[in-house]
Specification:
The structure holds two protein chains of two kinds.
Chain A lengths: L2 E5 L9 H13 L4 E5 L6 H10 L4 E6 L1 H11 L6 E6 L6 H6 L7 H7 L1 E6 L2 E2 L2 E2 L3 E6 L1 E5 L3 E5 L3 E6 L19 E7 L5 H5 L8 E5 L1 E6 L5 E4 L3 E4 L2 E4 L4 E6 L7
Parallel strand pairs in A: 1-2, 1-3, 3-4, 4-18
Antiparallel strand pairs in A: 5-18, 6-7, 6-17, 8-11, 8-15, 9-10, 9-14, 11-12, 12-13, 14-17, 15-16
Chain B lengths: L11 E4 L3 E9 L2 E4 L2 E8 L2 E4 L4 E13 L2 E3 L2 E9 L4 E3 L2 E3 L1 E4 L4 E3 L2 E3 L2 H11 L11
Parallel strand pairs in B: 1-3, 2-4, 3-5, 4-6, 5-6, 6-7, 6-8, 7-9, 8-10, 8-11, 9-12, 10-13
The chains are: A alpha+beta, B mainly beta.
């Protein structure tokens, strides 16, 4: 079972060197050793993954954060037989680790060792795969399932989630195995002295689980931030395709 | 009725007070509406219509709790509950009906076990009219 470890470039910082040494020792102790590829300015994720696949790797383990994981997932969309593991290192951008039930740091090696594999949906936005979510804000209309149109009269914050959270409650978590994306609209009133006196509607969000949704801006086009690292402009069509990714998850994952 | 803990496999849809929907809204799970909807609403699950909701649509649901304003016909397979703040301008077809003091209804009632059959027939053929003994 050949493993390939993909290290993000921020792990070259000295502050991570001790953690990486301990991590590599644990990986060896658990018998999970494999080749290591390090992201640099000259080596892209795509190059490293394609090289690993040529070496018959069947498990790619991302060592990094949400952005490293989602960039890898986008490339692996074309390789559904490959299993994706995750060792979250670093204090920021670790929402996916929480949702997948993977502990931060070296403890994640034990999750790898347990090897519970789940098939996670990979929806597409304008024909490009994403794993986590797409975010935007402004005034927009949504054409849902080609059946009905949803509109708002003032700016909202939009989040189209596949594997993400949209609120603080335990139920504000999307299910990445249901074959749908959760479209969440939260009212967003700009702060102004006039709004202090205006009667504003309650700020409870709208949540719609959908298979197919098209987002159009009212007026100027809106920017959509996908998985925290890629930006596209509206109009955008999101389709929950049947594509999936095999991901090693922990017992404490937030979806069933 | 609308918590995930009771039935985690069901999907919950929430239409907040700040949005409006136009067209044929279809859902497989529980639906909570607090905004405005124009067109039609069909759900296999439970429907909750909040006080602030304004709906101009024909509605089909398994169970429903209505506290808002509806202009259109209501076909509820099992149990329909009308809150004191509810106002319905349309015909109602259901098996079990609970009406709170203050609820306003302008329309015909069609009740009993046959109404669920009528609902199923109506789903299969939209042309076929609901023709049950009116109460």
């Amino acid at each position: 079972m050949p493993y390939f470890y993909l290290y993000d470039s921020y792990l070259q910082d000295r502050s991570y060197s001790n953690q990486l040494i301990r991590l590599e020792t644990t990986i060896t102790d658990l018998g999970l050793q494999g080749k290591v590829g390090r992201l640099t300015l000259l080596k892209s994720i795509r190059d490293l993954i394609e090289n690993a696949l040529r070496d018959n790797t069947d498990t790619i383990v991302v060592v990094g954060n949400d952005i490293t994981f989602s960039q890898t997932a986008e490339i692996l969309a074309l390789h559904p037989k490959i299993t994706l593991g995750f060792i979250p290192l670093g204090p920021t951008n670790q929402t996916l680790a929480y949702l997948l039930g993977i502990p931060l740091g070296i403890l994640a090696c034990h999750t790898l060792s347990s090897r519970i594999v789940e098939k996670i949906n990979l929806p597409k936005i304008n024909n490009q795969s994403f794993i986590k979510s797409a975010e935007a804000q402004g005034v927009a209309t949504f054409n849902c399932e080609n059946h009905y149109q949803l509109s708002v009269s003032y700016p909202h914050y939009y989040k189209i989630c596949n594997l993400d959270v949209w609120g603080e409650s335990d139920q504000a978590i999307s299910n990445p195995k249901d074959g749908l994306v959760e479209v969440v609209l939260t009212p967003h009133k700009p702060k102004s002295w006039w709004n202090k006196f205006k009667k504003t509607p309650a700020s409870s969000p709208t949540v719609l689980p959908l298979k197919n949704v098209r987002l159009d801006a009212v007026g100027d086009s809106l920017s959509l931030l996908i998985d925290g690292h890629r930006v596209i402009k509206t109009p955008a069509t999101v389709v929950a395709t049947g594509d999936y990714l095999r991901v090693i998850v922990g017992r404490d994952r937030k979806f069933k | 009725m609308f918590t995930k803990s009771e039935n985690s496999s069901k999907i919950e849809t929430v239409i907040g007070p700040s949005v409006s929907i136009d067209g044929g809204f279809v859902s497989q799970g529980d639906v909570k509406i607090e905004g405005s909807v124009t067109g039609s609403i069909v759900t296999n699950g439970n429907l909750l219509v909040g006080e602030q909701a304004h709906i101009t649509a024909n509605i089909q649901a398994s169970n429903a709790y209505i506290a808002g304003h509806i202009k259109g016909n209501l076909q509820v397979k099992e149990r329909l509950e009308l809150a004191p703040t509810s106002k319905i301008d349309g015909d109602i077809s259901t098996k079990v009906l609970i009406v709170a003091e203050g609820a306003q209804v302008s329309g015909k009632f069609n009740m009993g076990s046959l109404s669920s059959q009528a609902l199923a027939n109506d789903r299969n053929s939209h042309k076929k009219p609901v023709a049950n003994a009116a109460v």
